[in-house]
């Protein structure tokens, strides 16, 4: 008897289009001989759809055995859809609702990383738009320029910018609040090589298997921003051109953050490899699975077919 797998994609976030692509990759990659697949589309307003018709979450979730979440950003990675799946008792792959929320909140994730002994960029947390001017004065006085300005609670590097000087920093902060960011984090800019490492539970006989590191080489003068990720102009090298010591530290740190944040099944953590060491940036609990995404590239580098990975996620979800 086939397992009925519901693939959730779309969603009311700024990453709606990328989510559609991740979901499409899941739908195409799940082996037909093992799984009956349901394409569950969530539109930008949050309305659920099944087979082209609007439907309540409760009704469609009662018709599936397990869920794979292709959602990114708000609603998908912040724990909200996980709460819904937990309420209806539907097994799903990926972090639970609390782990998702914790990883998505960049400040709390950084605090956990520091407690675990990892290096992280110095930062200033700005809780509301009213604090923007005072915070900007402090940032200019205490941080070398430029600095990285990022929203707390958005994914895929949406809204991240590299700016320097009072007016540009203030403008970047105010722009994020105007666009609905719940809070803003300003970090010191660490110069070095950008890297990412995925980890998967229960793979190849290991409790937590670290995939090879990927070196990310964005266009000159750019961060690995949302635009750089999907423009096709960023180079990604797997395995990355890192020393053996740095490569081992990246894998150790990715495993450590997966455990420290209390995550499940799989995750991908981002780092900067600098002269002073490896700096932790953030963890993605539902990393992209589009053809351009990083996790599928690292799976391919070690000879793990994408359909096998998806089947493994379904098994992990059903075993919990």
Number of strands: 15
- How many domains? The number is 3
For the record, what is the CATH homologous superfamily label of the largest domain?
ATP-grasp fold, B domain
Q: Whole-number average pLDDT?
A: 93
What is the tally of helical segments? Answer: 11
Main sheet characteristics: 6 strands, antiparallel
C-alpha geometry = globular
Determine the strand fraction and express it as a percent band: 25-35%
Radius of gyration: 19 Å
Structural class assignment: alpha+beta
- CATH A-level architecture of the largest domain: 2-Layer Sandwich
Helix content: 25-40%
Low-confidence runs: none
Named CATH topology of the largest domain? D-amino Acid Aminotransferase, Chain A, domain 1
Distance between the termini: 20 Å
Strand and helix order: EHEEEHEHHHEHEEHEEEEHEHEEHH
The CATH class of the largest domain turns out to be: Alpha Beta
Write the SSE topology.
Layout: E1 3-10, H1 16-29, E2 35-42, E3 48-50, E4 53-55, H2 57-61, E5 66-69, H3 80-87, H4 97-104, H5 106-115, E6 123-126, H6 132-142, E7 147-151, E8 161-163, H7 166-178, E9 184-188, E10 193-203, E11 206-210, E12 214-217, H8 226-230, E13 235-237, H9 244-260, E14 266-274, E15 277-284, H10 294-301, H11 306-319
Parallel strand pairs: 1-2, 1-5
Antiparallel strand pairs: 2-3, 3-4, 6-9, 7-8, 7-9, 10-11, 10-12, 10-14, 12-13, 14-15
